[in-house]
């Protein structure tokens, strides 16, 4: 929470200043002329099946399903690709022991930093915030299905915190499909409590991706707490204009809000994200879907 130095991904989505993934830091927005929001439409499309590159361990078959046992890379656009693990890799910073969503790879380098990746679920329920230490990963047509078991909570004070196993609060199956520079994410939320708040984190390294633009202006992002975004296309990118964005339509899913955040600190924080918050008591349906656009490359 702000002022404690504790990882504040849990947060309180209805109170942006105390929102997820924010510790004590001030908001500083410096107007700059950067990347146009529509730039992702300029990228060439690449067939995601032909762009699939198996990791060292490949995949095995169990009961007719392709169970992921090693990292898979999907070519996206230019030198950019997306990587999926069936482990807690990459083991960076505060989140070293937790499962990750899609990892953005720029050339040979993973650029996730201490971020949670694209499409990583976190659940606020019954006074606790649940993260995933355990997951099941399968290959599907055009992508990956990863089921995150919400079986861990954060304990401790200030920067001396850890994630400890607990009785699972449920699980979220997330289906990732790669179509060139577009990553489509579909989360099955039918196996978690409805009197809860679900966060869908979309994060990479804050030390790399530190600039932000929306549909109205371009600004530079400095560490700050949580900013509630209005509708339209929002993106975070590096000094070259490479990065990622989300096209947010308020009201498309009842009970959803999009937040912008970024934090870097020597204590192990290094993330920048466009994270969704879903009030499940107001959310209708069992599926939540959205796209992440890769920019540049």
- SS-based structural class? mainly beta
Largest sheet: 16 strands, antiparallel
CATH topology: Beta-galactosidase, Chain A, domain 5
Low-confidence stretches: 1-6, 8-50, 54-64
- Count the beta strands: 23
Q: Kindly report how far apart the N and C termini lie.
A: 35 Å
**Beta-sheet strand percentage?**
over 45%
The top level CATH class name? Mainly Beta
Corresponding CATH architecture: Distorted Sandwich
Fraction in helix: under 10%
Q: Can you tell me the overall shape? A: globular
Structure, described:
- With 297 residues, the chain is mostly beta strands.
- The protein has one domain: Beta-galactosidase, Chain A, domain 5, CATH 2.70.98.
- It contains no helices and 23 strands.
- The chain has strands at 29-31, 52-54, 59-62, 65-68, 72-77, 80-84, 103-106, 109-110, 117-125, 128-140, 143-157, 160-165, 171-179, 182-188, 197-204, 211-213, 218-221, 224-228, 232-237, 243-248, 256-265, 269-279, 287-295.
- The strands form 3 sheets. The chain has a 16-stranded antiparallel β-sheet that branches.
- The protein is globular and about 45 Å long.
- The chain starts with 28 loop residues before the first strand and ends with a strand.
- Residues 1-6, 8-50 and 54-64 have low confidence and may be disordered.
């Amino acid at each position: 929470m702000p002022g404690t130095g504790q990882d504040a991904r849990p947060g309180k989505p209805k109170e942006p200043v105390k929102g997820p993934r924010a510790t004590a830091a001030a908001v500083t927005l410096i107007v700059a002329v950067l990347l146009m929001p529509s730039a992702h439409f300029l990228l060439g499309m690449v067939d995601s099946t032909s762009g699939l590159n198996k990791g060292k361990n490949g995949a095995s078959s169990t009961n007719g399903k392709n169970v992921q046992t090693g990292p898979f890379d999907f070519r996206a656009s230019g030198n950019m690709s997306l990587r999926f693990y069936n482990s807690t890799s990459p083991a960076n910073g505060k989140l070293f022991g937790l499962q990750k969503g899609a990892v953005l790879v720029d050339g040979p380098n993973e650029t996730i930093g201490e971020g949670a990746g694209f499409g990583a679920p976190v659940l606020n329920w019954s006074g606790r915030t649940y993260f995933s230490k355990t997951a099941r990963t399968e290959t599907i047509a055009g992508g990956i299905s990863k089921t995150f078991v919400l079986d861990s909570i954060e304990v401790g004070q200030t920067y001396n915190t850890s994630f400890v196993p607990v009785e699972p609060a449920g699980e979220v199956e997330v289906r990732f499909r790669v179509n060139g520079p577009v990553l489509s994410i579909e989360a099955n939320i039918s196996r978690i409590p409805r009197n809860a708040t679900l966060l869908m984190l979309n994060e990479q390294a804050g030390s790399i991706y530190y600039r932000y633009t929306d549909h109205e202006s371009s600004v530079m992002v400095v560490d700050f707490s949580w900013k509630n975004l209005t509708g339209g296309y929002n993106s975070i990118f590096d000094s070259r204009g490479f990065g990622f964005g989300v096209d947010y339509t308020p009201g498309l899913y009842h009970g959803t809000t999009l937040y912008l955040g970024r934090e870097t600190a020597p204590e192990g924080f290094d993330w920048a994200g466009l994270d969704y918050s879903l009030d499940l008591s107001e959310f209708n349906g069992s599926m939540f879907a959205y796209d992440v656009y890769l920019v540049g490359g």
